[in-house]
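Section 5: illustrative case.
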């Protein structure tokens, strides 16, 4: 008989990333059986629209259920670590929205809990795991299409959408800072594409240059990092202009010793329709690839990891290191 589907619950719906976490896991074969959230976050109607048959349950009841394998968490960032620890101590594996935590004490507590319980703590770095063009870029790099990776340049602009943002969005202690939050995506991609297991942060900056009435908001950040002869540059911001037809023109350029790959993940402002545009230039090719239909292997791999107790979706050490570096960059920017 085929294996029973993995069963999961959503805990904390404060960020709309929960839609992608749940939706992609369902597409990979998992079953969402219940949810809990505190209060009435702005995302709740959208969650109910997408998953109308999923009932609410009290948090303690969810953690007590023996038939739930995985907890999805997209709570207020400062609350995610405590919920993850509670879930793991109840015998559940965890997929948390980024940032997985907001300070080093939380990260240390998560590491201790993983070591003690043997549970999986996975962070859904959606700008890699939910982007088909990144899947294609990963395959090209692995094939040697651009030689050895020497640098990544990751750009993460976002639209502020002020009217839709809850109070915690403007509270530094609640969201963790722009580098710990948004730039964790680009740190993940640097480590992934360079094959690095660590990095040195050589520059970190964060500031508020356009929103003086919101002193808790950081609307600009940048990081320079290095590991051996691999280099990375990261810029993140909340400056996406209203005329852009999507929330941000996220880009990634991967410089290799024998070529380059550029990703225009969400829009091509040159006019090509749709998302997931990849441009490859090497010794024999100069071409555009449409990657919208390339798969998203993280989600089925996580299901397999939960079943087999493996680390094929993402190494546990990688999740820890990304958050460690993001938190270190945030601290350096604020010192």
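Designed sequence:
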């Amino acid at each position: 008989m085929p294996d029973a589907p993995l069963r999961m619950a959503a805990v904390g719906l404060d960020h709309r990333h929960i839609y992608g976490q749940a939706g992609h896991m369902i597409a990979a074969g998992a079953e969402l059986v219940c949810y809990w959230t505190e209060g009435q976050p702005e995302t709740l109607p959208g969650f109910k629209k997408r998953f109308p048959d999923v009932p609410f349950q009290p948090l303690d009841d969810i953690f007590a259920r023996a038939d739930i394998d995985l907890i999805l968490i997209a709570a207020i960032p400062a609350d995610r670590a405590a919920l993850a620890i509670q879930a793991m101590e109840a015998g559940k594996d965890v997929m948390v929205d980024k940032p997985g935590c907001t300070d080093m004490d939380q990260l240390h507590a998560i590491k201790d809990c993983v070591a003690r319980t043997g549970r999986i703590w996975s962070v859904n770095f959606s700008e890699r795991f939910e982007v088909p063009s990144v899947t294609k870029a990963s395959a090209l790099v692995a094939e040697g299409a651009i030689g050895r990776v020497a640098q990544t340049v990751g750009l993460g602009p976002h639209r502020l959408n002020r009217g839709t943002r809850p109070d915690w969005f403007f509270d530094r202690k609640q969201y963790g800072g722009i580098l710990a939050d948004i730039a964790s995506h680009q740190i993940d991609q640097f480590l992934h594409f360079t094959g690095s297991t660590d990095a040195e942060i050589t520059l970190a900056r964060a500031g508020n240059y356009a929103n003086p009435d919101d002193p808790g908001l950081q609307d600009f950040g940048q990081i320079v990092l290095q590991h051996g002869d691999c280099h990375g540059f990261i810029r993140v911001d909340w400056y996406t202009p209203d005329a852009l037809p999507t929330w941000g023109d996220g880009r990634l350029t991967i410089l290799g010793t024998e070529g380059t790959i550029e990703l225009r993940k969400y829009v091509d402002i040159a006019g090509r329709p749709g998302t997931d545009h990849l441009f490859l230039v090497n010794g024999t090719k100069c071409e555009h690839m449409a990657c919208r239909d390339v798969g998203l292997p993280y989600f089925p791999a996580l299901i397999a990891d939960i079943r087999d107790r493996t680390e094929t979706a993402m190494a546990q050490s990688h999740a820890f290191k990304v958050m460690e570096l993001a938190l270190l960059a945030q601290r350096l920017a604020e010192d």
